[in-house]
Design brief:
One of its GO terms (biological process) is NADP+ catabolic process. One of its GO terms (cellular component) is cytosol. Its cofactor is Zn(2+); Mg(2+). The protein has 455 residues and is an alpha+beta fold. The protein has 10 helices and 16 strands. Strands 1, 2, 3, 4, 5, 6 and 7 form a 7-stranded mixed β-sheet that branches. The two termini are 37 Å apart.
């Protein structure tokens, strides 16, 4: 069956790390409920996935607190009404600092800098936050008014007294040269994902903020009309939800999340893993199987159904691994939630559905380990960071990212997998670099052979 999997970005082109304490708790809970005890001891040694760990999404603030969405929104309206040249209104009371992140066609504004003085220092990208007055100024120069309904609340930092907002400026092309003169550039979120140093917690936090913002803005674009009566919708709660403008309807609409199962199917007897290729993958890249969850279906049922539909393999036990927000798919799917599993095969004969996959094959643990050891993920990250730096300086160079996955001798590796910003990478590397426990006895976990996997 051909499904939304055709649109699914589980090429997961490049990569991530995994999960925090609440995910580990969920992992243990789901494992106890869905697996035999011999599998419950599989260890997960992970940090935070890309797009998770957003530093400005803290606990929900009460409405009366100054940095809560409602309080910040009221303060925002007061600031937007102020015009020092024409207004006789009194200045607004002391309020938090507002920072705005513009997006154009799903691309966040970014800048780049090099902190060191050596020629081999790698540049690092930063989100292009601008102040509220500067945002009004730039948009005003282009003939565009900034209103409170065009801004979406992202979160706050109470310790710094700062509130963060996002705004979609896709309709105004004149902003590109205006901001370009300040060495800002609108960059694809997927490019920023690859360019992020996954060992840098600050950079990973900025990537999570950008992912959250893109998901919200794309959802706003998709939900301009009520699905019940067809009338226009209006933003509410500082853009965190929408409501139908029809007085007889007033349907509440909340941001959309699309859950996806992604699974590494394992042949336990022959110590192999099933990997698939899609037609849009770059040459030599293999990844996990994946697919959207259907209505009325459990996660485990989705794993078994998708594996059988795509590769003809029957699955028995299903073990939860971790989950990852994935806001870099098509704009029609604002934010996928990738829910990762190990799935244990009951049958071994592969029957590929060519409408779903180009190919699917069993790969030995040894071959997977070799591929992980030679793929130069760090090189790809550095190359892409340099590309973003050139873009922000107004000089964009063409670069094939697939060319960075070479062995040290310069020869192409026989295969490689999505890098450390994709949950697929961590499903594959976790299996490849540990002994699978049997008969209820936990086996010792093996450390990855390459330092790039020690995230």
């Amino acid at each position: 069956m051909v499904k939304r999997a055709a649109m699914l970005s589980v090429s997961l082109f490049f990569s991530s790390s995994s999960s925090s304490s609440h995910l580990l708790f969920l992992s243990k809970t789901l494992t106890k409920r869905t697996c035999f005890s011999s599998l419950a001891t599989m260890s997960i040694n992970l940090n935070a996935h890309a797009f998770a760990g957003n530093p400005i999404r803290s606990k929900t603030l009460k409405a009366h607190e100054p940095l809560s969405p409602s309080s910040a929104f009221q303060s925002l309206k007061t600031h937007l009404l102020q015009n020092p040249e024409t207004t006789s209104l009194p200045p607004p009371p002391k309020s938090p600092l507002f920072k705005v992140l513009p997006f154009r066609k799903g691309r966040p504004l970014a800048s780049s800098s090099i902190t060191g003085n050596n020629d081999d220092d790698v540049p690092s990208w930063h989100l292009g936050w601008i102040s509220l007055p500067d945002c009004k100024y730039f948009l005003g120069k282009c003939g565009m008014d900034l209103t409170e309904d065009s801004l979406v609340y992202l979160g706050s930092k109470v310790e710094d007294d700062v509130v963060y907002w996002a705004v979609d400026v896709s309709g105004e092309s004149r902003l590109v040269p205006e901001l370009g003169n300040k060495q800002f550039c609108f960059v694809e979120l997927r490019t920023l994902m690859v360019a992020t140093d996954w060992s840098d917690s600050i950079a990973m936090g900025e990537l999570a903020i950008a992912g959250h913002a893109r998901a919200l803005l794309e959802w706003h674009n998709l939900s301009r009309f009520c699905g019940h009566c067809g009338e226009k919708t209006i933003p509410k709660e500082a853009g965190r939800r929408k409501q139908c403008s029809n007085e007889s309807c007033k349907k509440r609409i909340y941001p959309r999340v699309d859950p996806v199962v992604i699974m590494l199917v394992i042949d336990r007897e022959n110590d192999r893993a099933l990997l698939g290729r899609q037609s849009r993958f770059v040459p030599r890249m293999w990844s996990c199987l994946a697919g959207f969850i259907e209505p009325g279906e459990s996660l485990e049922e989705a794993v078994r159904r998708e594996t059988y539909e795509e590769a003809g393999i029957e699955v028995g036990e299903v073990v939860y691994h971790s989950s990852q927000p994935w806001p870099v798919g098509p704009s029609s799917i604002p934010c996928q939630l990738m829910v990762g599993f190990f799935a244990y095969a009951k049958s071994l004969e592969i029957k590929v559905d060519k409408e779903e996959l180009d190919d699917a094959q069993w790969h030995s643990r040894e071959d997977v380990r070799k591929a992980l050891a030679v793929a130069e993920y760090k090189k790809a990250q550095k190359t892409t960071a340099a590309k973003v730096d050139q873009m922000c300086k107004g000089v964009e160079k063409g670069q094939s990212l697939s060319a960075d996955f070479n062995v040290e001798s310069g020869e192409l590796a026989p295969m490689f997998f999505p890098g450390p910003f994709a949950i697929a990478h961590h499903l594959i590397s976790t299996w490849a670099n540990q002994d699978v426990p049997t008969d209820g006895v936990e086996a010792g976990s093996k450390q990855p052979s390459s330092s790039i996997l020690n995230l």
